[in-house]
Amino acid sequence: MITRDVISALSVYEKYNIIILIQIFVTARLTVSPSSSQMFRGEFVSLSCEEDDSSAGWTLRRNTSREIRAECEEWGAAADSSCNISSVLTWDSGVYWCESREGPISNMVNLTVTGGSVILQSPVLPVMEGDDVTLLCEEKNSSNLPAAFYKDGSLVGKESTGHMTIQHVSRSDEGLYKCDISGHGESPSSWITVTGEETFTEPPHPPTPLTLTNAHPPS
Q: What pLDDT does residue 67 have?
């Protein structure tokens, strides 16, 4: 299960001559298909803003080595709530997010496009503590090749079919991962984020107005 990213905006609510703060939840999540943080040059990718409030007017943006806060129309093809790139290039590597007219943003996704022959398929979104996570070391022209997996520069496993499963992930599994296929090369590195259970805070309710009764002096 992937947590929703909830962004809080503060507004001022005035009632009964009392000013209180109300927390407003604006929710959107950026998803990527195929769901991998790395991809080969020339592949198709689709990014979507999944939103709870369509009136918020979410726009998909990105930062790359060539551009800052660029909208979908500048680098992809808009299709409903999605933005598609028919053939990704290495300079499409960067940070992607959804942003509303009011200012709040969704989760950010870091995508890496490589011109090399090996990628590490890893979760593009944060993973929940306790879930199992499978990493796939993929060679562009072959499948199920033996691979070595590394976390933060240290070897964590060798798998004969190129798949490695981390069972019941915890915060200690968070880090920078890459893989290597002997004779074919090494993948770029990708960060895996582990998050706890999703929690929501109920917004405070307006105070109940005081009712005053007339007091009669003793006779």
A: 96
Q: Looking at residues 200-208, what average pLDDT do you find?
A: 43
Residue 42 to residue 46: CA distance in whole angstroms: 13
- Count of C-beta atoms within a 10 Å radius of residue 202: 6
Q: How many helices (H) and strands (E) does the chain have?
A: 0, 20
- C-alpha angle 122-74-64 in degrees, rounded to nearest 5: 45
Q: What is the pLDDT of residues 56-102, one digit of tens each?
A: 578 899 999 999 999 999 999 998 889 999 999 999 999 999 998 77
Q: Is 178 in contact with 120 (CB distance < 8 Å)?
A: yes
In order of start, what are the domains of the chain with their CATH numbers?
A: 28-115 (2.60.40.10), 116-198 (2.60.40.10)
List, in order, residues 6 or more apart from 184 with CB less than 8 Å away.
117, 118, 139, 142, 145
Task: Find the length of the chain.
Answer: 219
Residue that the structure tokens 């060539």 belong to:
66
The number of beta carbons lying within 10 Å of the beta carbon of residue 171 is: 10
